[in-house]
Amino acid sequence: MANLIFKYSAMNGGKTINILQTAHNYEENNFKITIIKSKIDTKGKDSIISRNGEARKVDILLRENESLLTEGNYKKYYTSKVILVDEVEMLSESQIEELWTIAHLIKIPVITYGLKSNFTGNIFSPAVAKLFAVADDISEIGSSCLCLCGKKAIFNSRRVNGVFTDQGETVVIDGSTSDVEYVPLCGDCYLKYVKIKDKHVKKLTDLVNKVL
Ligand SMILES: [Zn+2]
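^ thats the input. predicted complex w/ zinc ion below
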């Protein structure tokens, strides 16, 4: 039996370290593995790079509309013991369907790693929604709020020129423009720093003050 697995976390959650460790474990036992990432993820070009600087070239750098079910790509992964996907939120819904088919038809386990939500607090992409719908196993790689409040990070907030924002394009790779960075925050800190002007926050704050 082979499964399609989705492991998600906030930014800085150690997803890439987890992939590199999993790859190492398989290769130590002389098993072939295939690592895939989307070409949209321009960080590291054709490699995945963990926060501690460890890097590894991917086997398939998948273009936006590229199929995994071509002879050329099939020959790259068909003898693999496992397929590992980094930043899976950048794939397309169709590519997730292909990965599911690979897992269940030719019995190669597929472990995907990525973000659950984007900086606006919504499901990151149709690919992530699809994973939540069809993945055989879903688990969270826990990470901490960057404010060191001790709570679990849920949100990937965007900071532009040092100011938190929930406006703009969904995919802006950090480091691609020097002023964009992502900050993992817990719910309380997300409300405090990003959602403070949100209509619901304002309405409830007014109520709290009124009924004092
Ligand atoms: Zn916090």
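The first strand starts at residue 4 and ends at 8.
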